[in-house]
Amino acid sequence: EKGGYPHFMLKEIFEQPRSILDSMRGRLELGASHLNMGGIRAYEQKFINAQRIIIVACGTSWHAGLVAEYLIEDLARIPVEVEYASEFRYRNPIITERDIVIAISQSGETADTLAAIELAKSKGATIFGVCNVVGSSIARATDAGAYTHAGPEIGVASTKAFTAQVTVLTLLAMIMGQKRGTITDTKLRELMVELDTIPAKVTKALELDAQIQEIAEEFKDATNFLYLGRGYNFPVALEGALKLKEISYIHAEGYPAAEMKHGPIALIDENMPMVVIATRDSSYEKVVSNIQEVKARKGRIIAVVSEGDKVIPAMAEYVIEVPHTSEVLMPLVSVIPLQLLSYHIAVLRGCNVDQPRNLAKSVTVE
Ligand code: M6R
């Protein structure tokens, strides 16, 4: 059942080229230059005229929501708020009939997310679900939605569900941008062509497995980790830190790289490993100077860079080169080495990666 892999988590990490493709199938038709998402058809005008989008989710799904915030604001120019479902619910939020609430959930059974949906519904908002489990409570509670086609995810640590969520949300943002006229045909076409290459790029990123295992050997006894990223890679930093925490029990935090100087930089010494996601994008130069700041304080740097980077290898202790892609699609590729790193560290520490202590696959209590 684990398909020859020692753990479900590793199997699921390696399934990603496939699950991303499955989540695009029928929605991205490159030949016909066509984007399509059945779930929004009945609500097209609502999406076009939405005054605001509120995303509710928990954990990894909340991280996918953060990526979606960047995507939707960038491509469709609609203001987006991303909320922890549990907080949203208990703070008397302002919701109107012109708001669209997007609920993201792998299991479709997360109690906090379900309760947030019920609240938003009672205020008249339109609820759109992005769920993996067909027929789940959340899928049934929403007005419309688009399933992620990740297939069953057994490992408690979410991996392929995350990239499937980001894939679906990317398509949604592209469709909204197209319908609202906030993205040019040329830009849209470029993104479609690039999105089509993502499964192959993820396959290439997975080939880094052996190198990442060596890095894991080096850092398996660390007691703390920091993860840094900017822009689209900021949510990826949060996701990398969450993965490490939940399966290896190492304390880890994700930060927007520029926030370092406002506090966390005080933590850096020769014992502090820092995973910096520094792919070639609009904040690249800034991230390079963040790396310099860390290096000056003797922090140990593991950098995730775009293939062919000439600058960072001279500065970082370890460099992981991932295939380059468009900035807006980068999370789908840059998250892969972070999933593998946490997996290998957890295995080397003898942890139960598929069923970490204190955690359940779906959290059905509020
Ligand atoms: O099933 P959901 O996507 O609603 O679950 C949300 C979180 O409980 C979940 O992502 C959790 O954080 C994972 N264990 C992360 O790996």
UniProtKB/TrEMBL annotation:
<keyword id="KW-0808">Transferase</keyword>
<comment type="subunit">
    <text>Homodimer.</text>
</comment>
<keyword id="KW-0963">Cytoplasm</keyword>
<keyword id="KW-0032">Aminotransferase</keyword>
<keyword id="KW-0677">Repeat</keyword>
<keyword id="KW-0315">Glutamine amidotransferase</keyword>
<dbReference type="GO" id="GO:0004360">
    <property type="term" value="F:glutamine-fructose-6-phosphate transaminase (isomerizing) activity"/>
</dbReference>
<protein>
    <recommendedName>
        <fullName>Glutamine--fructose-6-phosphate aminotransferase [isomerizing]</fullName>
        <ecNumber>2.6.1.16</ecNumber>
    </recommendedName>
</protein>
<feature type="domain" description="SIS">
    <location>
        <begin position="215"/>
        <end position="356"/>
    </location>
</feature>
<comment type="function">
    <text>Catalyzes the first step in hexosamine metabolism, converting fructose-6P into glucosamine-6P using glutamine as a nitrogen source.</text>
</comment>
<feature type="active site" description="For Fru-6P isomerization activity">
    <location>
        <position position="361"/>
    </location>
</feature>
<feature type="domain" description="SIS">
    <location>
        <begin position="43"/>
        <end position="182"/>
    </location>
</feature>
